[in-house]
Amino acid sequence: MSDHLAPLDSDGAPAEAMGPLAPSTRRGLLRMLAAAGLIAPAAALATAGVAEAAGDPQGDVAILNYALTLEYLQASFYTEVERINAVTGEAAKLARVVGDHERAHVRALRRVLGGRAVARPQFDFHGATESESAFVRTAVAFEDLGVAAYKGQAPRITSPSYLSFALSIHAVEARHAAWIRRIAGVVPAQSAFDQPATAAHVVAVVDSTHFIVGPTQADGMPGFTG
Amino acid sequence: MLSGAGLLAGGILVGGIGAPALGSGSRLGDAEILNFALEMEELQAALYAQALQHAGLTGELAQFARIVGAHERAHVAFLRDTLGSRAKPAPAFDFGDAVTNSDRFAVTARTLEDLGVAALDGQAASLTKLSLASVAAIVSVEARHAAWIRDLLGELPAPSASNPAQPAAQVRAAIRRTGFVKGTV
After folding, report:
1. Which of residues 140-169 of B touch A (CB under 8 A)?
2. For residue B79, what are the CA distances in angstroms to A174, B113, B175?
3. Do A196 and B146 make contact, defined as CB atoms within 8 angstroms?
4. Which of B17, B71, B141 sits opposite A165 (nearest CB)?
5. Which 3-state string (H, E, C) describes A164-203?
């Protein structure tokens, strides 16, 4: 670890870290979010890859399902990193600890949502779990995105207990982001104010990764070890 | 240890769902909460400013103090601007060896950053939506600070899956115990 960490353009991080945009079906995540009522399907499909289709959540359940989708993505990512075992040292420790947290978030959200919880989609991380450098870049992007996603929804949550719950996760995602950024050699806290992200922006970024490759599985959480 | 922490955190998460947002049962208004946040930020900003002058900080710890100190000053300015004439004046501080000894400074910074996150999260659900958006922009930065200094100290940056929130009375008691504030908290 060097004495001085480099700055990183946090706005550019997800796109850079997650690779170039390519033609995409967008179907899996868009269907899920549309089904959850978080984005309008027509608007989202018409503006593929564009962030201006602002999220229009219709209630706390939709927001919690959106959070669950992001937690599925993160939990599956860290679980696969641990299983493939191509990451060493501090990064491997982070994958274990943060993976535990993301799996706990999935369990907690599923418990809160009960029968209304969306199922876990199928993922293909396209090598991002198979080398340390790809893992670190992707994890930085995921965690910063997770912070912005929770922040974007917090003022829209109506139930005070759900809000407290979401904020307790929001702060943990920020801790994850700082930790992985330090491992990546970049400043853990880039700016005095973290910006929120709309659901549409988050969808566009996640979609650009092609990590979600299939619709939700019928039985919920196949292969999920958490 | 890790799986144990995960289980415990899961229990807290699930247990926290049905609980009221504020343990104390008293809901503070926006101005009172933002003044409470301002006190925390003044305390932190003063700690970093004085430590940078007197603690002989070097390497990444000095970088941490510079960057985080600038963030806390920005938070103070933002909250003062938001509160306008309702903003309370900054109290006087005496940090003792926390601003003259590098190791004491690091431990103190960790304590105050963790406390700051817990304090803001403890009040956020009581805020109106507009104030909540502002506080949310600050609280995740405080969480990043906390993780950074914990990592520098060799502690787990994110010790649990659920960041605990603390009611205002508990936070005020914790601040009083430090003896840093010379005046009323």
Report:
1. 140-141, 143-148, 151, 156-158, 160-165
2. 21, 17, 19
3. no
4. B17
5. HHHHHHHHHHHHHHHHHHHHHCECCCCCCCCCCCCHHHHH
User: Would you say A70 and A201 are in contact if contact means Cβ atoms under 8 Å apart?
Assistant: no
What pTM, to 2 d.p., does this model score?
Answer: 0.82
Chain-chain contact of A98 with B144 (C-beta, under 8 angstroms):
no
CB atoms within 10 A of CB B25: 7
pLDDT given for residue B55 in this prediction: 98
ipTM, 2 dp: 0.86
Which neighbouring-strand residues pair with B181?
B93
Q: What angle do CA A195, B111, B147 make, to 5 degrees?
A: 40
Residue of chain B whose Cα is closest to the Cα of A150: B136
* Calpha distance A9→A219 (Å, rounded): 40
CB A135 within 8 A of CB A129: yes
Nearest CA in chain A to B120: A167
Nearest CA in chain B to A167: B121
Backbone angles phi, psi at A85, to 5 degrees: 65, 40
Taking the CB of residue A23, how many other CB atoms lie within 10 A of it?
Answer: 8
SS3 at position A223:
coil
Spatial distance between the Cα atoms of A208 and A186, rounded to a whole number of angstroms: 23
Residues B30-63 have pLDDT tens digits of: 999 999 999 999 999 999 999 999 999 999 999 9
Q: Return all residues near A83 (Cβ < 8 A) that are at least 6 apart.
A: A225
Token pair in block for residue B168: 């205002």
- B18 to chain A: which residues are within 8 Å by CB? 161
Determine whether the interchain pair A192/B21 forms a contact, defined as Cβ–Cβ distance below 8 Å.
no
Asked if the model's pLDDT at residue A30 lies above 80, the reply is no
